[in-house]
Amino acid sequence: MPPVFNEKCTACFKCVEICPGDVLREGDGKPKVAYPDECWHCGACMMDCPADAVRLDLPLWMRPVTKRVK
Ligand code: SF4
Ligand code: SF4
């Protein structure tokens, strides 16, 4: 899933600036995901957001395995 921005967003647009995939654009009061299929879940937008306003749900295949079947 591409990132989702919550109400804590201050519209600084740092995430738009740093996204290496050029996925994000400046929207009306918060960023918008312009090219969702281009997001490869690198996490840069979430890690660099100064307001903790980015939620990034990783696809299932990218999540760490927490339970193993013997
Ligand atoms: S970096 Fe964070 S606070 Fe700034 S525009 Fe992006 S989501 Fe909003
Ligand atoms: S996870 Fe990476 S590629 Fe996807 S929108 Fe954020 S910075 Fe861009």
Describe the structure.
This protein is α+β, with helices and mostly antiparallel strands and 70 residues long. It is elongated, with a radius of gyration of 13 Å. It has a single domain, classed as Alpha-Beta Plaits (2-Layer Sandwich). Strand 2 and strand 3 form a beta hairpin. 16% of the residues are buried. A two-stranded antiparallel sheet has the order 1-4. The chain has a two-stranded antiparallel sheet with strand order 2-3. One iron/sulfur cluster binds next to helix 2.
Task: State the total count of DSSP E strands.
Answer: 4
Enumerate the strands of the largest sheet in spatial order, edge to edge or round the barrel. Answer: 1-4
Written as H for each helix and E for each strand, in order along the chain, the element string is: EHEEHE
What is the mean pLDDT? 94
Please tell me the total number of domains.
1
Instruction: Kindly estimate the percentage of residues that lie in beta strands according to DSSP.
Output: 5-15%
From the alpha carbons, calculate the radius of gyration and give it in angstroms: 13 Å
CATH topology name, in short, is: Alpha-Beta Plaits
Structural class: alpha+beta
- The first-to-last residue Cα distance is 30 Å
Which CATH-level-2 architecture? 2-Layer Sandwich
Cofactors, ions and other ligands in the entry: iron/sulfur cluster
Poorly predicted residue ranges: none
Would you state the CATH class? Alpha Beta
- How many helical stretches? 2
Q: In which range does the helix fraction lie? A: 10-25%
Quick one: overall form? elongated
